[in-house]
Amino acid sequence: MDVLFIGKRFYTNRDAYNEKFGRIYQIPHYISQKKTTHLWLIDYHTRNINRSSDQQLEITTTPVFSLMFLYMIFKMIFKRPKLIIASGDCYIGLLSLILSKITRSKFIFDVYDKYDTFSGYRNLFGINLYQLLLKKSDMCLFPSLKLLNDTKDICKKTFFVPNGIDENLFHPKDKSLARQTFNLKNGDLYIGYFGSMEIERGIDDLIQATKLVRKIGIDLKILIGGTKRLDLNLDDAFIHYLGNIPFNTVSTAMSCCDLLALPYRKSSLMDHGSSCKIAEYLALQIPIVSTNSTNFSSNFNLSKNDISILSECSDPDSFAQAILHQLKNPHYFIAKDDRTWISINRQLYTMLFKEE
Description:
Layout: E1 3-8, E2 10-11, E3 14-15, H1 22-31, E4 37-43, E5 50-54, E6 57-63, H2 67-79, E7 83-87, H3 90-103, E8 106-110, H4 129-136, E9 139-142, H5 145-151, E10 158-160, H6 175-181, E11 189-194, H7 203-215, E12 220-225, E13 239-241, H8 247-254, E14 259-262, H9 268-271, H10 276-284, E15 288-290, H11 294-297, H12 304-308, H13 316-328, H14 341-353
Parallel strand pairs: 1-4, 1-7, 4-6, 7-8, 8-9, 9-10, 11-12, 11-14, 12-13, 14-15
Antiparallel strand pairs: 2-3, 5-6
Helix pairs in contact: 1-14, 3-4, 7-13
């Protein structure tokens, strides 16, 4: 076997297996077109075991506590992959590092978030696992430039691999047709938020800012899609909550909106991250209302003019002013580089196999 890619099946409230979602699916799928590749998805949430293939890509999902999990370890030792890529968290990284030592393969650590800020992260036996994996990997991949720059002195080699989009899903769409899909009125004014709703993502600030805009007579509504946290109140009449809709309908839901929101607060997780939905927002060419979060500003090479219309973090008043500005004088942010998965994976493939 040429490549073993070990990833987390469920991340950012999406199912990498069923929805073919994100870098954990798209990177190995591209590599499999040229190299024999097995995608092993580790499932922390269900007891389901799945085996399938997508064109040349072999896929296996296993519960983390199962005989099948142990079987896969021994199977991969026998298969002796030449390259192991780990993406998901530090525990998947540790498993991949150990397998790479046993099989004498190269170990690539895909760091799609600052893993030591995850709630479930723990050091093992007093060892800083996150730092250890950065040091021991042959190469680290990062979707966030801040995360890359903060750790580049630790890693042997680094490479920027941004989160990409499927251009077949994310492109400008007709707003009225999109609204028909969700039974929304054409005359209503919507600002949309899609994705996770932890406190640091600023959904509470968006709701408060929308209330301020409504107080001055603008009938602005919020369209929300994603998994709601338990203590978040979405009962206001101006909030239309779609639930955690399937990934293949997310772009249509986004296209219903007049504005799209990125109300992120400052935190170590958010500041070092690179949210999947930002490139998706940009591809739809809908005005974005955003805070001045490095999650956005540092990963998309924003101009001074772009940054000038960003709001302060954790400040509903400032976010309300940014909403009003985008309603009155719409500004369209533009990605300076190609964020399609085809382009991103082509560059990554060249980097991984350039010595051949």
